[in-house]
Amino acid sequence: MKKAILILTILIISLTANSQEIKKFVGNWRGELDVNGNKLELIYKLTMIDDTTLMGLIDIPEQFAYNIEVQRIYIYNDTIELKNFDLNMKFKGFVNRSVIVGKYKQGRFRSKLILQNDINYKIKDFKRPQTPKPPFNYEKKIVSFVNETDKAKLAATLTYPKGEGKFPAVVLISGSGPQNRDSELYLHKPFAVIADYLTKNGIAVLRYDDRGYGESTGVYEHTTTKGFANDAAAAFEFLKSQKNIDKKQIGLIGHSEGGLVAMMNAANNKDIAFIVLLASPGINTDKSLLRQTLDVSNANGIDTSIINRNQRINTELYQIVQNEHNVLNANKQMHRVFDKYSSNLSDEEKQKLGLDKGYVNSLIKQAQSAWFRYYICIKPDEHLSKIKKPVLAINGTTDLQVNAEENLNGIKQSLEKAGNNNFEIVKLDGLNHLLQHSETGLPQQYKDIEETISPEVLEKITTWIKSNVK
What we know:
Order of helices and strands: HEEEEEEEEEEEEHEHEHEHHHHHHHEHEH
Helix content: 25-40%
Number of domains: 3
Distance between the termini: 36 Å
Number of helices: 13
Low-confidence stretches: 1-16
Radius of gyration: 25 Å
Largest sheet: 9 strands, antiparallel
Mean pLDDT: 90
Strand content: 25-35%
Structural class: alpha/beta
CATH class of the largest domain: Alpha Beta
CATH architecture of the largest domain: 3-Layer(aba) Sandwich
Number of strands: 17
Shape: globular
CATH topology of the largest domain: Rossmann fold
């Protein structure tokens, strides 16, 4: 999931141009970047704050990034340069009536960009009716705890019912990508919705910012799933220390990769009372990722020959990452794989198919990250086959990222191997990876769906937990 970029300060921009030269650049300038065949909309919002000063902000609606500051503006004659140094972004173009034609750069990425003045541009109002709003009929406390193993301090929110008592409790564990305690994506806040629903039904909930994100310390970029498991373990121990929490009735709820984290902890900690797996892998992660690529590509209408080629490339890449531990040797082997499949293609064909040099280098860099090298070797069975505590696994039939049939079957088989007599496998029709109702399950549609999480999922989690706590 992607990090939102917030503007904290607005810098005054100095110009070497007169008032008339400046005015022709004022407005909302909309354009589209070509990112490996996909269109990414970008809007520069330029306004005058006095006769000689222009202020600039950038919106990237697809990434839900708004009001990114333009930190430097140069204008001379009909040419304008717009820069953001923090993100290494630069646009340089010349104005011709209602159009600015130029080039956009960000890091190694380059793209032609034509900006058109759009006087009607407004930020779309995305409705999120399930997001909890005060007043709340339960207690809410801002807390923090420390993962002593990795020396990360995690900022969190603990919600619990009003009144005296020892309450059952859960830790919410987010999926891949840095996320805040609400697991926020496209203004959806699924963990806030889950916490609100469970707490109203008598179950305390702890949710935390991922390490190195939000108000938590630590370094996210170099952390593996094992490190995230250590964070969840620290969250569990924190809950055990709370006076109003029933120490014997604390469980873990993990979404996607968070489900793997829940499995890893439950397999090694007998104090964990139960786990809930939401859209979580149940087969080896390399197989799950291959199926994800296949399902998403098919749903997007990609040509079968291209899908088959990409599947062969990914299979070979995953095998290299799994088997070659020397990074330099792995790099060479992966480049040879891409060369094998692209040697007879023109530069234009390579770019169209995502096999151009820049994109290939970015893929190899990603494949060599500490997180990916660890993740691609995870075998859920190694953990699930040790768990005898209650397990609830939920997945949706339109999930294109974690296929319901294969992964739920994998979870079921592993729990049966463990001799676990208390688990429930739930496959819900028409739910995507975020457990929203969706006909297609396509990730690019997550933002357009008003529902944050299906009410039947919330109800099922709640009734199941209540039936498994004493």
